[in-house]
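Researcher: I need the complex structure. Ligand is NAP. Inputs:
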Amino acid sequence: MLQVAVVGSGPSGVYAAQSLVQQDRVPDVRVDVLDRLPCPYGLVRYGVAPDHEKIKSLQNNLRAVLEHERVRFLGSVEIGPGTLLPDRLLDLYHAVVYCVGAATDRRLGVPGEDLPGSYSATEFVSWYSAHPDALTDGYAQDGFVRDVESAVVIGVGNVAVDVARMLVRGAAELLPTDMPDAALGVLAGSGVREVSMVGRRGPSQARFTTKELRELGALPDTDVVVDPAELALDPAYIDPSGLPAASRRNVEVLRGWAERPAQGLARRLRLRFFLRPVSLTAGAAGRVALTRFERTLPDGRGGVTGSGQYEDIPAELVLRSVGYRGVPLEGLPFDAERGTVPHAAGRVLRNGVPSPGEYVAGWIKRGPTGVIGTNRPCSKETVQSLLDDASALERRPLQEDPLTALRAAGLRPVEWPGWLAIESAEAELGRSLGRGVVKIPDWAGLRAAAERVRDQEMRG
Ligand code: NAP
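Model: Output:
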């Protein structure tokens, strides 16, 4: 029997587990999928926007893997200082696949970035997605949009599109989501009327995907506004024939909006380009009031140069959506420049040499790019490497039962029935509020829901 731990139960972790149990090269592979949260699914649960029901339904596919007879979900297991470090984990398993994602966000590196009212998009996403850290970290206390009329979103990737869309969604569209009740109350009562989403390069270089972009044009009560003259600063906007298909489609959608007159709807979403953030300044109350941008111009090589001309966009809320970044895990090597773990086809490299039994997949392997499906081939490649190494790995006898050892390390793993109890509690919470499923937003609530199973087991 080959015992494998997968650290992280987001898409890359679950796809790794799936590849490990759905193959016939190595018989009887057992997989423990560990997660620091008591809930599985990573960014599918805590990153995919609540109004993206269809993408969220991917959870059903991931669930089938975690319910496989040779896969065991163990939530509330944090690998790190104070609990278990990678070397200890390798005592318990023949192999460990780290699928820990990219847990923080890139910094802008401009003055005023940390002013009140300026948040990373991740903080906003975590809050409306009910990530329990959002409440403990405290940044959600002021409700993001309270007393806000104008917002600036910096960046033009899919996360920027998500947060811009959530800022202009009305109460009727938010109500059917599983958003926590407090966030729903705040967003439903929001007075945000104007959102500017700002890219530092041109429309042909934007990172959003066309499906996500197009959705903005269909939002109720919201005009999408683009300036044809600003779009035309991009030579590829004028002649998109040389662009890759995805960028060309984006440009065509933007062109459609440029040609469509604004309809004077209640909210406006402006898509701006060729503006790079320079500084954020506070108003009288100490909260961010203005974001200064420098007009940029294409340099002909895909980049931009500064023009020395500046534009100030007034807004009381700034969401910095400039990408995620991996964080080092103590005991694992880390490439600080790329924010990833060095690897060769998924094998962790220590001083340039593959470290037996240690693997990576997902964003910590390749950086924070691609859509959920990108993780499938990425995890598969890693698992191929692991299976190639399996006969050597399997020779090492394991001394302890992993679950006993995790408990001895002071951890209280939440097993699958505990997660199912959280799911039931969320359904019950929704019923009590006259809504569908509503997520539990705090650690205590999640723990209490999971503990119900333990209590029942002890009584039974
Ligand atoms: P992203 O796609 O990497 O986009 C980051 C954006 O920030 C880019 O527009 C980038 O511009 C800009 N940026 C970076 N540094 C900047 C700076 N210093 N100043 C101004 N702008 C800066 O990242 P993301 O939006 O966080 O998305 C991460 C991944 O998740 C992506 O692969 C995305 O497709 C995926 N995702 C998918 C969905 C979906 O499928 N619905 C939803 C959410 C996320 P440059 O291009 O100029 O660097």
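Model: Summary of the prediction. Residues 106, 108, 154-160, 162, 199-201, 205, 207, 209, 212, 276-277, 321-324, 368-371 surround NAP (CB under 6 Å).
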